[in-house]
Amino acid sequence: MQRLKKSLSGNMKLWRIVERQGYKCAVCEQPFYSEDEWDIHHIVRRVDGGSDQSSNLMMLHINCHNMIHSNGCV
Question: What phi, psi does 40 have (nearest 5°)?
Fold first, then answer.
């Protein structure tokens, strides 16, 4: 994810993802605020053949992302 934040094309990809989600977390559906910690989640894991295309990524609050992985969901 740091790689995405550092490049113009990466930043554009992040904006497309968050715009597609209506500027809300895909799990809790609460809006993102500038002070929020967030992360990118692969819908289909890369080890299962998922890609880094924007269509396979979603932006989540960091706590929501941790919850997904601790519960084995999504």
Answer: -105, 135
DSSP state of 39: E
- Pair of tokens at residue 60: 């989540």
Angstrom CA distances, 44 to 32, 49, 50, stand at 23, 7, 5
> Looking up tokens 């819908």, which residue turns up?
43
Q: What is the end-to-end Cα distance of the chain in Å, rounded?
A: 19
In sequence order, the β-bridge partners of residue 29 are none
Distance CA 21, CA 72 (A): 22
pLDDT digits (tens, 9 = 90+) for 24-55: 999 999 999 988 889 999 999 999 999 999 99
Residue 24's beta-bridge partner residues? 31
